[in-house]
Write a structure and sequence with these properties.
0% of the residues lie in helices and 50% in strands. With 117 residues, the chain is mainly β. The relative contact order is 0.33.
C-alpha cells in the first residue's frame, strides 16, 4: 500500500526557514521521481514547485522558488525533504507530496505552511 506522509509545516516569519519531509512507503523510492506541490489559500489548483528524479540527480524548481528551496532524497530513511529558505508571505499554502507511479498517482494529506509576521 503506497503512502505519503508529510510533516514539518508550521507558522514562520517572513525570511525564515522550514524543512518539510515526506515519508514514502509501499513503493521503491529509488525507482521513481517524487514531487512537492502546494495549494495556496483560495486557489483550486495544486502548483508543482519541485521534483527530484529517481536517482536524485535531476531536480526541478518552479521559478518562484529557485534559489530559495532545495529538494533532497534519502532512500535509507525513505524520505524526500524540501528545505525552504527566505520564506515569503506568498509561500503560504498547504504543501503536498506527490508520486506519479505507473499504476496510479498518489498524494499525501498535506502540511500547512503559514508565513506571517
Amino acid at each position: 500500500q503506497v503512502q505519503l506522509v508529510e510533516s514539518g509545516g508550521t507558522l514562520v516569519q517572513p525570511g525564515g526557514s522550514l524543512r518539510l519531509s515526506c515519508r514514502a512507503s509501499g513503493f521503491n523510492l529509488e525507482g521513481y521521481s517524487v514531487g512537492w506541490f502546494r495549494q495556496a489559500p483560495g486557489q483550486e489548483e495544486h502548483e508543482g514547485i519541485s521534483s527530484i528524479s529517481s536517482n536524485g540527480e535531476s531536480k526541478y524548481y518552479v521559478d518562484s522558488v529557485k534559489g530559495r528551496f532545495n529538494i533532497s532524497k534519502d532512500t535509507s530513511k525513505r524520505t524526500v525533504d524540501l528545505q525552504m529558505n527566505s520564506l515569503e508571505i506568498e509561500d503560504t499554502a498547504v504543501y503536498y507530496c506527490n508520486a506519479y507511479l505507473p499504476w496510479a498517482e498518489y498524494w499525501g494529506q498535506g502540511t500547512q505552511v503559514t508565513v506571517s509576521s
